[in-house]
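Reviewers asked in the last cycle whether our approach scales beyond single polypeptides. To address this, we selected a multi-component target totalling 520 residues and predicted its structure end to end. The input consisted of the following lines:
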Amino acid sequence: MTQKTRLILTTLAAGAIALSMPLGVNADPAHDAVLKLYGAPSSFSAARGKAFFLGTHKGGKPQTPSCTTCHTKNPRNSGRTRAGKVIKPMAVSKTPSRFTDPKKVKKWARRNCKTVLGRECTHTELGDVLTYLGSI
Amino acid sequence: MSEKPSSSVVVWDLFVRVFHWSLVAGVTVAAITGFFVGATAIDVHVWVGLALFALVVARVTWGFLGSRFARFATFVVGPRKVLHHIVELQEGTAGRHLGHNPLGAWMILTILAAITFLAISGLIVWGGIFAHGPFTGFYDFDDGQPFFRLHWWVALGLLALVALHIGGAIFESMRVHENLVRAMITGFKEPRENDAVEGAPEQPENGPRPGLTVLITLLVMAIPIGATFQASRIKIKVTHRPPDTRGTVYAENCSDCHGVYSPTLLPADSWRKLMATLDNHFGEDASLDADTTKQIEDYLVAHSAGSVETKPSAVFTTVSAKDPTRITASPFWVKTHRKIPDYVFSAKPVYSKGNCFACHSDAQSGWFYPGNIEVPDSIAPPKK
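The resulting structure, written as structure tokens, was:
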């Protein structure tokens, strides 16, 4: 390996690390504390969370097959409940108070998982989604 | 007017003519809004009704202070003379009247009385059932109900009187060979030698007093109109108004997903059923911890339909047998929204039938005053 190649690889690696920094890393300690309820933050994947958030699920109520039914496909946008009420963006960058109150997170995780999947979500699923929503 | 014979005189003065045709226009609008358009036209109906009442007050005053043929003293006669006039009509010997004939006189008094009754009963309905106007707080929904029925029947009676009046005018026009409708437009009639005279024949000494008439009318009308504008300041008894949900555990929890429905929109049994099935709440899991659920249920049951004397509270005591927890399935809701096309409910910013708040600006208060309905302008029929 030449000096030049090493330099390029190092730069690429540093860039990749820098780019991946925001993933799963959140400035608000309250958000981190909530995330830790579901496991070690390093074990979660924003990519898996994104797939789960955008995915279509079975087993839940027929009117709501996906998170995106109410939250839209872009978590940085406002969503809307089926009754017409505005839901603030799920992306932490847009709504910094998201996922800072453990009671609220548990309440809505329970309700919405049952609505969309017909069951409670696993800790991994929740950790992944929270990581995804914290990353964008 | 150019056709008038030189011998014609002004029988119907300007006031009488303006009064007559304004009344025609007002009764027409009141009848259309009342019988056909319904609740959404309530404000137009009420203000036209008040205008009609003002016209009546002015006409009665003019009946004492007006010109010769406008004065009650010159045409109102007792029942015996009326009967005599009818007998003469049957015999074909009845004379022609330059002013009102005895039957016409009583038609006028009856119509004036009917409109007066409609104005007063209408204001009681407005206050009792809709919590608006001078009787707000003095009458509740239950009090308003019989007045609503009376108002409806008397209004129908007024239309019958109008039909009789038109028939009478046509009959008399043909009988005495003169166009009475034109006379009510131009004011001119031709005196004839054998004109029958019923009341005081000449212009009384205290000649027409238009200024005083206007003043008296304004003073009388200041009472209901002034009271209407003061009505919003009246503190309505707690049992006569929907509960204020602001700051309640109910509002705090339920408003995350939907507007805060007044608890008066469902009866107690429906609220109990609804709170027992929060895990499948209109297709969503809306479950809460047991404590909160109980607190909310107690609140909703305590303030459920039938708990207060308001119109929504009364009409929503009846629910759909199939879907007893769905407000929009109840018979009253279905009946009052039947003419609204589906696309209005699905369009932005309404999104669902459950979003009362999109069109009823006072939905959260639980009043649902029909004058506060406004379908957002942005909603248009879907393009084909």
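Residues 82 and 102 of chain B are 5 Å apart (CA to CA). We regard this as preliminary and will revisit it once experimental data from Aim 1 are available.
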